[in-house]
Amino acid sequence: MLYLRPPEDFKPKFEAVGCYIEYQERFLLLHRNDHGNPEVDLWGQPAGKIEHEETPLEAARRETREETGLDIPLEDIQYFKKTYVRFPRQDFIYHICTVKLIQKPELVLNKKIAHSFAWATSEEALKMRLIEDDDVCFKMIKEKEKAVSDA
Q1: In tens digits, what is the pLDDT along the chain, a chain of 151 residues?
Q2: Is-contact 51 59, C-beta < 8 A?
Q3: I need a surface site. Which of 72, 73, 130, 137 has the fewest CB within 10 A?
Q4: How open is the CA angle 78-139-101, to the nearest 5 degrees?
């Protein structure tokens, strides 16, 4: 379960980051392989644990490069939100980052992580078998974009 504030007795074991990459109103989604991860056969964005002394933006860049071959300049990655995740076995902090691309990239998938990818609108993504709570993240990102465009 994803929270905007730490739930009672929250004890995070690690911090992670997800990088929501958008090109022409479509988000990059990776179809996850079984690499010892409970998220097998689900769709999600480049994501992973933040390493020691790494910032969320640096981790977003590294995870994206490791999983897709896409090397995004650090200055193009925007920090969006810090959230708190509680799963039955562990708590962790989840940082959400976003990127808007102006050119469609060539991807080289890390086949240990994902066996395919798709570009999907947020509405299309919400109909896919997403990693737990990714639907909430997509909705938050789109709400922010709508608020900015309405201003």
Answers
A1: 999 999 999 999 999 999 999 999 999 999 998 766 666 789 999 999 999 999 999 999 999 999 999 999 999 999 999 999 999 889 999 999 999 999 999 999 999 999 999 999 999 999 999 999 999 999 999 887 666 556 5
A2: yes
A3: 73
A4: 35
Compute how many other C-beta atoms are within 10 angstroms of the C-beta atom of residue 120.
18
- How far is residue 9 CA from its own chain's centroid? 25
∠ CA 45-122-100, nearest 5°, is 65
Which sign, positive or negative, has the C-alpha torsion 20, 21, 27, 29? negative
Specify the DSSP class assigned to residue 75: G
State the Cα angle at 134 between 56 and 106, rounded to 5°.
70
